[in-house]
Amino acid sequence: MTRLIYVSHPEVAVEPDVPVPQWSLSASGADRAVAFAKHQMLAGVTRVVSSDEVKALETSHIIATHLGLDVEVRPMTGEIDRTTPGFVPSDQFEILADDFFAAPETSPHGWETARTAQRRIVDALTDLFSPTSGDVVVVGHGGVGTLLYCHLAGLAIDRQFDQRRGGSYYVVDLTTLKPLSGWRTFEQPPPRYVDERTLEYLRQLGATEEELDDPALEPSVLATRLAVFPIRDTLTVGQLAEAVDMSASEVEAIRVALGHRIVDAEVLVAGPPDVDLFKGFKLAADVFGVQPITDLVRVIGVSTARIADALVSSFLVNVARQHIGADDEDLEMAKANALSAELLPTLLDVIDSSLRRHIVAAGRSDDQGALSGEFEVQRLAIGFVDLVGSTRLTQNLSVEQAGRMFHRFDEVTTWCVASRGGRVVKLIGDEVMFVAPDLECAIDIAIAIQADLGAEEVMPRVSGGIVFDEVTLRDGDVYGNAVNLAARLASAAEINTVLVSPEPSDRDGVSICMRQGLDLDGFDDMTSAWQVSPN
User: Distances in Å between the alpha carbon of 267 and those of 198, 236, 239, 240, 249?
Assistant: First the structure.
């Protein structure tokens, strides 16, 4: 792809008594032009074309000198003719410019009409509108540059497409003759090239021109957002707080609990669905209390963030990699993201059904445990199973081999825990923490994990620790001295054994013996436990 890069001159030294075409660059304008000339985007430029106005010539010579090129001067690419009424102060000029763009067929203030200026600039550059052996820079002016942009983009003349600051540029694909972006200042990065078919597909998904003009545009990411969350954000934190009759700090606290970052006050962060959601939070807080709901929301935020990350990672590994390097990579990646997003309702149904069943399974009466202030206390079996020597082993494995090993560990442990009536509390790299209703159930789980992992070809052996005692339950996690003791016992256990406390019942297929004199980190007294291992 070859490009035409249209550049408007930067700041000038305003001299009311000098004709505008003879104005020179100011010191700051010259400095910006020098910095822009070093832009990596200009590395492929083979021609520099300029209007004959002094400020444009100065800018073009700075660029051409840095690139080792000559400047081609084209007088017909000059700025809109404003000889009448001549120089006007900047505030009055803005009013005249608004009128100029609003009435392209007329000349209410004696200026050259917008339509005439547009035809002039298009005719002056027509010979450049075809692929060449290199990129072309055209140095000109904001007004005629905007008129050229409107022509190439197929847009009606409108000042909304005008540059926001002198010293800006836009890029045109000389194959399609379509701008790749709107105006960008010298300091902004060039637009990422996205072909027209991909842009049209994104428009079909609902993308706005502003979104397509984003310099950080990633078609696949935008396609996902449009498919997953088509409703645009229209409210700031303060506006959302007002809509739900909460304070801004309360709304922000819930947002952060959900895992969302703090943003500036003017940033849009919410839409109509969020209003109903936060009203629900407020109603729930009135029933349960603000802090308990915030704690629960935090659990939801952590869990959904993990689900989201797992989904994206799975997509990249199993779907996206098929399209990397393809000629139409952007388009196919965008389609794949949008198609995958169509599965979201099914995923939400799975989460809804699973959550309901887990609530039923977790249900218990208050006489099954004790309530201590803000916490629930129960007698449960806490288990840890660790991969022994995994750190040393992974040093000799590739990243992919290590990934497969830990993935298999997760598969086996979650299967063994869930299928035997336990619950995985957390997976921590080479360790799983789980709870079970009683000691015998926890021992069954640990032995099953050892047996299944022992059948794997490339897998470290495991050890485990189990304690049956009172623990504190909060926010889906488990705390207390029993948890710490179980973790220490797992570390002290020999390979393919489980250290258990208190003494377990005799059972077929396993041997049980007492181990004394255990020196456990964090426990001052020498500790004893019962070692359980398969026969």
Answer: 28, 6, 11, 12, 15
